[in-house]
Amino acid sequence: MDLNDAVLDHLRHVAALPDVTGTRYELESEIGRGGMGVVYAARDRQLDRRVALKILDSALAGEAQLIAHLEHPAIVPIYETGRLPDGRAFYAMKLVAGARLDHYLDGAPSLGERLRVIRRIGEALAFAHARGVIHRDLKPQNVMVGEFGEVYVMDWGVEAVAGTPAFRAPDARLNQRSDVYALGALLQCMFPGTAPPALCAIADKAMQADPAARYPDAPAFLADIERFQEGLAVEAWSEPLWHRLRRFASRNAVLLWLLAAYAGVKFLVFFLRTP
Amino acid sequence: MNKILVGLIWGLILGAIDGATAGFYPETRNLMAGIMVGSSIKGMLVGLLSGWFARKVRSTKWGIALGAAFGLLFAFLVAAMQHAHYLEIMMPGFITGAIIGFLTQRLGEPESARL
User: Helices (DSSP H) in chain A: which residue ranges?
Assistant: First the structure.
């Protein structure tokens, strides 16, 4: 009885997987489902290694060609494209061992670590934008953080993808500034409720309804993040005076302590001196 | 601006300010010119050595420590020449040196950036 159930389960599992006959891949399990297709963990029989195989819902392999042009450390590399017996297009890419950004954030990484991740994502976007490619559907589910801390932006969009509501800009036509909006939404969701005011301001500026009021591009967004990390004033926020003073004191704490020590010593020496 | 220049400039400024504080003591008011020149030269020597060290080693902690040590050493030499006012000269000199050491670490281009 147990054996029969196991066999039935196996048959159900195999029947649910697409037919990849004629390819060098052997499907193992489904690992993700997006707007344009399904991603499976698979084994490349020829090279004896595990890969991620994305099987698209259509015969269009434009997405793979799009990503293949983007060679960047934060963009998952494409190994091969092909077509299944049923005509659907597929592409094989690096199988990233790690956690999706939303799961990664559950582990409460430090502020510096979160900023490192958002900067890496921003760098990948800036790189793609410079090559005329926009993501269209940037969200935590499309970002992987690998086991060595590497960050990968995945699921680069094609024309048919409209984006995910919480991260989609209210723009009639998606462009680079729509990706900047999604980057701001991503920053916001990476600091739920506890973000420093300057970071909130950066996210708010990136998420302005009017595209012209946002950062013009990803590098401008990244420059503000970098300014925040260096303890400088960010472009997105005209901070109150007390905050500016606090930031100055925090940035120059050692110098202020030394000056206070100098004043203290001078004061002591003046009153303790023997004329 | 290279770190040695940063050290010389800040050494001159802070040395002059440190020397100028001698004006608070009535007994030194007629010696102010000599004190300010001597203090400025002392500051510049500390700045020169701290700047040279900052070009070689990037460490705020060690920059402050070495600046303070140089400041203390030169202040001791100045006090020893007068055989008096050791405390009044050495304690501010020690902290002025620490400030110069800090500034040479924070400001100016490190050696590697100019290669």
Answer: 2-16, 62-68, 101-106, 111-130, 176-190, 197-206, 218-229, 241-251, 253-272
One DSSP character per residue, A214-275 reads: S-SSHHHHHHHHHHHHTTPPPTT----HHHHHHHHHHHTHHHHHHHHHHHHHHHHHHHH---
Q: What mean pLDDT comes out for the span A143-153?
A: 93
Q: Do A273 and B88 touch (CB under 8 A)?
A: yes
A181-201 confidence digits (pLDDT tens): 999 999 999 987 778 899 999
Q: Which residue type, as a one-letter code, is found at position B88?
A: E
Closest CA in chain B for residue A268: B88
Q: Kindly report the nearest CA distance between residue B50 and chain A, in angstroms.
A: 16
Cβ distance of A266 and B87 shorter than 8 Å:
no
What are the catalytic residues of A? 137
pLDDT of residue A97: 87
Note down the domain range covering B97: 3-114
Closest CA to B99 of B46, B57, B48: B46
What domain count does chain B have?
Answer: 1
Q: Which helix (DSSP H) or strand (DSSP E) does residue B11 occupy?
A: helix B3-20
Q: Is B60 on the interface with A (CB under 8 A)?
A: yes
Neighbours of A63 (CB within 10 A): 25
Could you report the per-residue pLDDT of A4-30, keeping only the tens digit for each?
777 777 666 666 678 888 899 999 988
